[in-house]
Amino acid sequence: MATPSPARSADTEKITINLGFVDLGRIDLLVREGFYASRSDLIRAAIRAQLDRHDNAVAPTIIRDDFVMGLRDVTLSELQGMAAANQMLDLRVIGLARFATDIPADLVAATIRSIEVLGTIQASVGVRKVLDACRHSKGR
């Protein structure tokens, strides 16, 4: 069994970007001169700097739209409690929404009214299908 790369752990998502040759060469120069450990290290630092730069601009939206930042674990017992109380969940996450592997898809359909995840969803194939249908039916 392959072991995960140390640069990429379970709490990261791999993305692909296109860069011009000159920009890539400048990145490689900074890496070669020891300013950064790798291309990825520089790109992560640059992205974090831009995110920090815009924090004040997006903070009101995060509060207004009631987003959870970071990890939002959804458990079987939480959804069972929602179903027992005849309540629906509106889920908004910036980061990772993780659904426990023991949650049946029909319980998600019965308890999740809306979902918006800016980031990543980890869920079983059946739960993911229900969530995708929920998102598409809302015009997202």
Q: How much of the sequence is in beta strands?
A: 15-25%
Strand order of the largest sheet: 1-2-3
Per DSSP, the total helix count is 6
User: What's the assembly state of these chains?
Assistant: single chain
Query: Distance N terminus to C terminus?
Result: 38 Å
Please outline the major beta sheet. 3 strands, parallel
Q: What does the radius of gyration come to?
A: 19 Å
Structural class of the secondary elements? alpha/beta
Structure write-up:
By secondary structure, this protein is α/β, with parallel strands linked by helices. Helix content is 47%, strand content 21%. The protein has a 3-stranded parallel β-sheet, with helices on one face. Helix 5 links the parallel strand 2 and strand 3. Helix 4 crosses helix 5 and helix 5 packs parallel to helix 6.
Structural descriptors:
single chain, 140 residues, alpha/beta, 3-stranded parallel sheet, 3 strands, disordered N terminus
